[in-house]
Specification:
- By secondary structure, this protein is an all-alpha fold.
- The protein has one domain.
- It has two helices and no strands.
């Protein structure tokens, strides 16, 4: 029974390593500060839109 438990840890770790290596190579590289500034700007636009076009 002990032999079955030894091989499972390596296989699952190898899958995670492969997943993270693929994730690093795809997508745009954005600075976290830029994302925060964009969120604040979007919130300001929404508030101004509600002010100028009330429903």
């Amino acid at each position: 029974m002990a032999k079955k438990g030894k091989g499972t840890g390596f296989q699952s770790a190898a899958g995670l390593i492969r997943y993270f290596e693929e994730e690093k190579s795809k997508g745009p590289k954005l600075d976290p500060k830029l994302v925060a500034y964009m969120a604040v700007l979007f919130a300001i636009v929404v508030v101004l839109a509600r002010y100028f076009w009330p429903t």
